[in-house]
């Protein structure tokens, strides 16, 4: 009887460590996936020199190809977008969030300079924890000047 009780404690410890390892593995895989999605969104915005309809279509095509569906609530000031590129609104729930930050206002001799902040969400893919733990992955584009103003 004494050996069976000791073995059950050892079995419980092994189960706990297996669950911890599985959770860490799920979190690291989801983080890597959200990092790749965020980088693709940032690269598309930089390639098109801003966030417009063409950029939105390219991002939605990419999201449908990779099957990324992790959602979250965007911070205030960020516009939320679904996988198909439809605007959800400021501070709403979406797959990714975009915010345009103007660093230098337009003047006569200097074009308006801005950059875009992107937020992508990822979660811990375990049944109970996925509803509780949602993480954000932030990224910025380089400075983009609007030479068409004025």
Summarize the model shown.
The chain is of the alpha+beta class and 150 residues long.
Describe what you observe in this structure.
The strands form 2 sheets. Strands 2, 3, 5, 6, 7 and 8 form a 6-stranded antiparallel sheet that branches. This protein has a two-stranded antiparallel ribbon with strand order 1-4. With 150 residues, it is of the alpha+beta class. The model has no long low-confidence stretch (mean pLDDT 84). A hairpin with a 7-residue loop joins strand 5 (96-104) and strand 6 (112-123). It has one domain. The N and C termini lie far apart (87 Å). It has 2 helices and 8 strands, in the order ααββββββββ.
Structural class: alpha+beta
Discrete helix count: 2
Number of spatially distinct domains: 1
| Low-pLDDT windows of residues | none
Major sheet description: 6 strands, antiparallel
Helix content: 40-55%
Order of helices and strands: HHEEEEEEEE
Strand content: 25-35%
- How far apart are the first and last residues' alpha carbons, in Å? 87 Å
Radius of gyration from CA coordinates: 21 Å
How does the SSE layout of this entry go?
Layout: H1 2-47, H2 53-66, E1 72-73, E2 79-81, E3 87-90, E4 93-94, E5 96-104, E6 112-123, E7 134-140, E8 144-146
Antiparallel strand pairs: 1-4, 2-3, 2-5, 5-6, 6-7, 6-8
């Amino acid at each position: 009887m004494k050996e069976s009780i000791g073995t059950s404690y050892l079995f419980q410890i092994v189960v706990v460590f297996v669950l911890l390892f599985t959770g860490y593995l799920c979190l690291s895989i989801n983080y890597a996936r959200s990092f790749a999605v965020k980088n693709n969104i940032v690269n598309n915005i930089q390639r098109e020199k801003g966030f417009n309809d063409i950029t939105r279509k390219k991002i939605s095509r990419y999201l449908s190809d990779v099957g990324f569906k992790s959602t979250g609530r965007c911070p205030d000031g960020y516009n939320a977008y679904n996988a198909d590129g439809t605007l959800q609104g400021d501070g709403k729930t979406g797959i990714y969030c975009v915010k345009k930050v103007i660093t230098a206002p337009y003047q006569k001799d200097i074009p308006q300079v801005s950059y875009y902040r992107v937020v992508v969400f990822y979660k811990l893919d375990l049944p109970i924890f996925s509803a509780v733990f949602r993480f954000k992955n932030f990224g910025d584009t380089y400075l983009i000047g609007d030479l068409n103003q004025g």
